[in-house]
Structures are given as structure tokens and as C-alpha cells.
Specification:
The complex is a heterodimer of chains A (288) and B (288). Chain A is mainly α. Helices cover 75% and strands 3% of the residues of chain A. The longest helix of chain A is centred in the first third of the chain and has 30 residues. Chain A is globular, with a radius of gyration of 19 Å. Chain B has 288 residues and is an all-alpha fold. Chain B starts with a helix and ends in an 11-residue tail after the last helix. Chains A and B meet through helix 3, helix 4, helix 9 and helix 11 of A and helix 4, helix 10 and helix 12 of B.
Chain lengths: 288, 288
């Protein structure tokens, strides 16, 4: 195991996870135009659903993962209907929505902690027997490869939906001007509900994959979300491809940043990058 | 009785935190989610000075406030480039970075082990070792901060702050350098939070990074949003409500760890409900 190839592989892995989170986040931010911090907790919802179904009830792996993404999506959609939709109807400022989202995040986290305790858990049944591949001297697990491929597939899918379907056009219309889209007959509440469902399901999926890679805890969503948000911002917020680019950029900076220092500084490095970007290139790598 | 004194001390410490954050969020309209970082810096500086040099508590508190002010000046300068929800996100980032420093600068903060054996304050040979005496000290501190806040918001300086909150372009046109006003209030607020941190450190006699996480900042935000933004009495009412609420939960008979999670859950829900039905809080004069 050599150091530089391994760092590159680690960067790609981190980037793939962040890319997933950034994709869902960008989808929601692009349409709803506020920082949905509650979105992070949905990653934990996904992770814990799989934990319950796969480890607890012994269900099939793939069904559990699908259900995990589905539950996260459904909860995201319910929260949108109960909290964000009424607030948006009232034209609350984005700061009100942000504070409400903080409330959602904390409430969801603590529900999970009450149900499943605060302990750090792993998702895989047989720890330590992960299939690994070796690329130019760097080691990568099968799961990490799957994450990478999934991230790129979802990116492509979202890109295609935006370009070729009526639904994608409706999302674009809402993000441009919600009032006018209502006038031309788009059912904005319905479209937004689906956006929240899809975005949250992607978050849930990201939570599951992280759970298999490292493990799950109720507060896992926050750091995951923050990385996703940072990736989205440095990539150009609201831009699907930009978010993915930003995610890999962030993955590389983080992992090469800790080459000489301890790994605990990753979060600080990530926020340092964010602040540098906000100061010097607030529009991100790719402009929307 | 001892228990009631404990609660009262906590209320007065959080009242200071609420009052200080209210200056920035309520009166100036900057949604800062980083107050726990300044609270923590104050606590750590005091704790380190007291345990390593054995200097007087009040001197250590002043040094803590001074160091926090200098850091807040730098952070406030970066944040002043952002607006509204980006400001919130940037400030949240600083909380994560500073928490990372508490956790990882092992040589200075002992990392997750924390700093034990912080002595209680003493003045002219009298030590505030009895909790009742400490309560007196913390109430005096809270009262000083309260009157200071009242003085600030009633002064011409305070009126400029409110004008910045309502329309910072208009007030800039009138020839006010809004940057300096924003920086000044940010630094004052941080210094007050540092004072609360010093009190906390010497009251509990032990600190570790977990007291200064992001959720703590959100908790302080919840205090002032519940009490009411831009109202100093509201901050105190909010602190009392949110400190007492989990204690009631404990009396109802939930086990301690569940009660702790329920505390978080309740203030998450409180934030959501307030945003939905009463964004100005109990006695607030400004809504986000």
C-alpha cells in the first residue's frame, strides 16, 4: 500500500459519498432555494432503517437498502408537507426556513437516538470480510466502488430528467419563478413534494452507504450534510454537475490536506475551503 | 435546595449567552450560529489559565474575554462578507472549526479528555465554593450583562444596529459604516459569551469539547427565538423556559439518557412550531 495512490483512492471515495449528498441537496436547494439542514438527518434515517431491517429483522440486503432510501424519501416528503410547504406559502424568509430546518434536524436526530441509542453501530453483518480491489497500489473496497458508480449514475439520471422530461422542466420552471409556474398550470406543491422525496431518498442512500463503509450514529447526518453543502457551494450551488465536481474537489483537498497532519482536521479543512471559496469565488466552480 | 440553586446558576449562564446572541441576531439581524464557539473559547482560556498558572479567576476571565474578542474580530471580518443564509452557514462553519480545534489541539486542550480540576473563583481570600455564593456571582454577572445590553440597544449605537437590520443599504447611504457597527456588536457579543464560558468552566470545574458543539449554538439560538428576538427580557425568559423544560421531563420519570434526548427533541420541535406559528417568539419585537 503506497501513500499517494491510497490518498487518491481515498479522495475518490470521499468524493463519491459527498457527491451523492450534494446531488440531493442541490436538487432541493435548486427548487426550494433554502438551506435544508434537516436533510442531513435523513441520511441517518436511511442508515437506521437499514440497520433495523437488515441487522434487526434479517431482511434481504437489497430490499433493505431500497426500503431505507424509500423511508428517508417518504419522511423528507412528509416534513416538506408539514413544515416547509406552509412556511413557503407564507413567503417566510430563507432564514426562517433555515431555523425550521435546524429544528427538524435536531428533532429527527433525537428521535433516532431514543429509538436506537446513541451508540456507534455498523451495518454489515460480517465485519472485516469486505471484498477489496487494488488499483496502482491503493486499496478500495467493493462497496466504495459501488458508491462511486451509483453517484455517477444518479448524476446522469438527474441530468437526463432535467433535460428531457416534463417533470424536469417543471422543476426548472419552479426554480426560476414559482408564481408564474403556478399560473401556467404546474402543480407546484406536487412537484416540490416529489423533489423532496427524491432528494431525501438520495440522502438516505448516502447514509446507508456510509453506514456500510464506516458505521452509523444519530449525528452522522450533520457532518455528511455539511460536506454535501460545502461541495454544492464550491461546485456552484444548484448546479447538478457542479455539485459532483465540487464533491471530488473537496474529497481531494481533504485527503491530501491531512497527508502530514492528523485525520481529525478534515472537518476544519473542509470549512476552511468553504470560507476561501465564499470569499474569493462565491459563485463556485461552475456557475449556474 | 442545592438542586434549585444548580438550575438557577445554569439559567443565569444561559441568560448571558442568550442576551449576547440577541445583540447580533435580534438587534442587528445577523443569523449567527457560532455562539457556542465563543462560549467555549472563553471557557478554555479561563480553564487553562486557572489550572496552569493559578491566577485570579476574574483576571483569567478578562483575558478570556480579550482573546475571544480578538478571534471574534477576525471571524466577524470574514463573516461580514456574507448575507442572510450564507452568513448563517458561514458562522456554523466557524463553530465546527473551533470545535475541531478544541478536540484536536491535544497539547493545549487535552482533546476529548477535557480539563479537570478547574478551581472556583476567589476574591480577596474569599472562595465561591458554596453553590449559593456562586449563584450570587453568576446572577450579578447576568445582571451586569442585562443592563449593558439595555444600555447598548437604547443608545444611538443600538439604533444604528436596528437600522442595519431593517435596511443596511439605506443606513449606509446615510453615511454610516455598517461594517464597523456589525464588527463591533459581533465582538461585544462574543466577549459576553466568553464571560458565560468562564463562569461555566469554574462552576462545573471540568470542561471538555462536547459542551461546545454546534447543537449548543442551536440551543442558544432556540433560547432567543423562543423568548423573542430583539427583546432582552425575552432572552432571559427563553433561557429559563428551555433550561426548566428538560428538568420537568426528568421529574416525569424518564431515564436520564432518554431525558437528555427528549430535551433536544423538545427544542427542535419548539423551533419548528415557533417558525410555523409564532416567528417572533414570546415577547419578540422582530421576526427573522
Amino acid at each position: 500500500m503506497e501513500i499517494v495512490p491510497q490518498l487518491i483512492v481515498n479522495s475518490m471515495n470521499a468524493g463519491a459519498t459527498y457527491a451523492l449528498v450534494a446531488l440531493g441537496f442541490n436538487l432541493i436547494y435548486g427548487t426550494a432555494k433554502f438551506f435544508d439542514l434537516g436533510y442531513g438527518a435523513l441520511a441517518a434515517v436511511g442508515g437506521y432503517t437499514v440497520f433495523f431491517l437488515y441487522r434487526g429483522l434479517g431482511l434481504n440486503l437489497y430490499i433493505s437498502i431500497l426500503l431505507g432510501a424509500f423511508v428517508a424519501g417518504a419522511i423528507g416528503m412528509i416534513i416538506y408537507r408539514l413544515v416547509y410547504a406552509p412556511l413557503r406559502k407564507r413567503r417566510s424568509s430563507s432564514m426562517v426556513l433555515l431555523v425550521a430546518a435546524l429544528g427538524v434536524m435536531i428533532a429527527l436526530q433525537s428521535i433516532i437516538a431514543i429509538l436506537f441509542s446513541n451508540q456507534f453501530q455498523t451495518l454489515s453483518r460480517n465485519v472485516g470480510s469486505a471484498v477489496t480491489y487494488s488499483i496502482f497500489g491503493g486499496v478500495v473496497t467493493q462497496l466504495q466502488t459501488i458508491t462511486l458508480i451509483l453517484g455517477l449514475l444518479i448524476m446522469a439520471a438527474i441530468g437526463l430528467v432535467f433535460r428531457y422530461t416534463l417533470f424536469g422542466k417543471a422543476i426548472k420552471a419552479i426554480s426560476d419563478d414559482e408564481e408564474v409556474s403556478k399560473i401556467v398550470g404546474i402543480n407546484t406543491t406536487k412537484v416540490m413534494s416529489w423533489v423532496f422525496f427524491i432528494g431525501s431518498a438520495i440522502a438516505g442512500l448516502a447514509g446507508v452507504l456510509v453506514g456500510f463503509d464506516t458505521g452509523i450514529e444519530p449525528t452522522m447526518g450533520l457532518s455528511l450534510l455539511l460536506k454535501g453543502v460545502i461541495a454544492a457551494i464550491i461546485g456552484g450551488i444548484g448546479n447538478v454537475y457542479g455539485g459532483v465536481l465540487g464533491a471530488f474537489f473537496l474529497g481531494f483537498i481533504e485527503n491530501f490536506g491531512i497527508w502530514q497532519i492528523s485525520g481529525e482536521w478534515k472537518d476544519a479543512i473542509a470549512f476552511g475551503v468553504l470560507i476561501v471559496f465564499l470569499l474569493f469565488r462565491p459563485q463556485g466552480l461552475l456557475k449556474r | 435546595m442545592e438542586y434549585l440553586i444548580h438550575i438557577a446558576i445554569l439559567v443565569s449562564i444561559y441568560a448571558i449567552l442568550g442576551l449576547s446572541l440577541n445583540l447580533v441576531v435580534g438587534f442587528t439581524g445577523l443569523l449567527s450560529i457560532t455562539q457556542a464557539a465563543f462560549y467555549g473559547i472563553g471557557a478554555y482560556v479561563t480553564a487553562i489559565l486557572l489550572t496552569s498558572t493559578g491566577m485570579n479567576f476574574f483576571l483569567a476571565m478578562l483575558i478570556g474575554m480579550l482573546i475571544t474578542s480578538i478571534l471574534a474580530l477576525a471571524i466577524g471580518f470574514v463573516l461580514s462578507r456574507f448575507k442572510d443564509d450564507y452568513y448563517a452557514l458561514g458562522s456554523l462553519g466557524f463553530n465546527v472549526i473551533i470545535y475541531g480545534i478544541f478536540l484536536n489541539w491535544y497539547g493545549l486542550t487535552r482533546g476529548p479528555l477535557g480539563i479537570p480540576g478547574i478551581p472556583r473563583p476567589s476574591l480577596f481570600g474569599f472562595t465561591f465554593s458554596e453553590n449559593a455564593w456562586f449563584l450570587l456571582l453568576s446572577v450579578i454577572c447576568a445582571a451586569i450583562i442585562y443592563f449593558l445590553c439595555q444600555f447598548i440597544v437604547k443608545s444611538s449605537f443600538g439604533r444604528v444596529l436596528k437600522a442595519i437590520r431593517e435596511d443596511d443599504v439605506a443606513i449606509a447611504v446615510f453615511g454610516y459604516r455598517t461594517l464597523w457597527y456589525k464588527l463591533a456588536i459581533f465582538v461585544i457579543s462574543a466577549a459576553m459569551a466568553a464571560m458565560a464560558g468562564s463562569l461555566f468552566a469554574s462552576y462545573i470545574t471540568f470542561i471538555d469539547p462536547s459542551s461546545f458543539v454546534l447543537t449548543e449554538s442551536i440551543f442558544i439560538l432556540a433560547i432567543i427565538i423562543l423568548g423573542g428576538l430583539a427583546n432582552n427580557r425575552g432572552a432571559i425568559v427563553g433561557a429559563a423556559c428551555l433550561i426548566l423544560l428538560p428538568e420537568i421531563l426528568r421529574f416525569v420519570g424518564f431515564p436520564d439518557d432518554v431525558a437528555a434526548q427528549l430535551r433536544q427533541f423538545s427544542y427542535g420541535i419548539i423551533l419548528i412550531i415557533l417558525m410555523l406559528y409564532r416567528p417572533q417568539g414570546l415577547v419578540g419585537e422582530y421576526r427573522l
